[in-house]
Design goal:
By secondary structure, the protein is an alpha+beta fold. It is built from seven helices and 18 strands. A hairpin with a 3-residue loop joins strand 6 and strand 7 (101-107). It comes from Candidatus Schekmanbacteria bacterium RIFCSPLOWO2_12_FULL_38_15.
């Protein structure tokens, strides 16, 4: 990165910017090369500022929270990473809505599970089904995360975003089209905050539901391993994990990456796996499932950086 550009970014972020950062330390896969710079904004205006900087200098940027649902290339990312998880992580109950509901505001970098459990202590539920889903609030909204037949968009009211011009905007839920594990929010929009309409919940009932969903996830998924979560979306009418298993790929290995024996829609890093190892398995899975079932599996995880063909 040019010296002048480094100085400009340093003037904005002072000691909250790092250069040539290894992404493996910031992803749940523990995989990835270096990004040119990583910034840790404390105010929404700083996010807007770095987006404007990147647009002006024609430099790519990417936002991360906990680095879940993400596979970063071994070559890294030739751009600026905006990390929201360390400083953009506040949530609060902002108002009562009707008799049994509360409006909750969360910043985009909030750990989803910590928010759910924190609200549960205050007698607020409705998101128990998401217990155990890794990642942050912003990422879960962009991917319309969900489980057990429910998804996070069902509880959403409106969003605060930085748009593709670097402007701060609010968007109502009515303006967004949510589908299975996706929505039409542009990729270059950054979700900085969200309002949820959540129901009051007896604490004992909340604890029971949260424990139930956590246990169900623990029984069926490799929760203690280095993964990015589900690799593929479930095709309409099918279960991606079962298709992969039926194709004979459960346990398949490439280097230190292997298809989980517990759930075939997870690829696990068992040690020092590289992105190329994971990607080779992804390609083989897509090929074998297509050959056997004529079903095209669509990625749920995001590929970031060069080298993915």
């Amino acid at each position: 990165m040019e010296v002048q550009k480094i100085k400009e970014l340093k003037n904005i972020f002072k000691d909250r910017i790092r250069f040539e950062v290894s992404m493996d330390k910031y992803t749940s896969y523990r995989i990835g090369g270096k990004c040119r710079a990583m910034v840790f904004p404390e105010r929404i205006q700083e996010i807007s500022g770095v987006v404007s900087f990147c647009l002006k200098n024609r430099m790519p940027y990417f936002t991360i929270g906990k680095g879940t649902n993400l596979l970063v290339s071994d070559w890294g990312f030739d751009g600026v990473v905006i990390n929201l998880s360390k400083t953009f992580n506040r949530f609060e109950v902002v108002e009562s809505v009707a008799k049994n509901f509360r409006m909750v505001f969360s910043q985009g970098g909030v750990n989803l599970l910590l928010m759910i459990m924190g609200l549960g202590k205050e007698g607020i539920g409705s998101l128990e089904f998401a217990c155990g889903i890794p990642g942050t609030v912003g990422g879960s909204i962009k991917g319309n995360a969900g489980s057990f037949g429910m998804c996070i968009s069902e509880r959403l009211e409106r969003l605060q975003v930085i748009d593709s011009e670097g402007e701060i905007r609010e968007i109502s839920k009515k303006e967004i089209s949510f589908e299975y594990r996706s929505c039409n929010i542009p990729d270059d929009y950054i979700i900085t905050g969200a309002w949820f309409k959540l129901q009051k919940r007896d604490k004992k009932i909340f604890d029971k539901l949260a424990a139930k969903y956590k246990l169900m996830r623990k029984k069926t998924q490799p929760c203690s391993s280095f993964t990015a979560g589900s690799v593929f979306k479930n095709p309409p009418g099918y279960n991606a994990g079962k298709l992969i298993d039926m194709a004979g790929l459960k346990g398949k290995r490439c280097g230190d990456a292997h298809v989980s024996a517990k759930h075939a829609n997870f690829i696990v890093n068992t040690g020092k796996a590289k992105a190329k190892d994971v990607y080779k398995l992804i390609c083989e899975i897509k090929e074998k499932v297509w050959e056997k079932f004529r079903i095209n599996l669509e990625l749920e995880i995001v590929l970031l950086g060069e080298g993915f063909i």
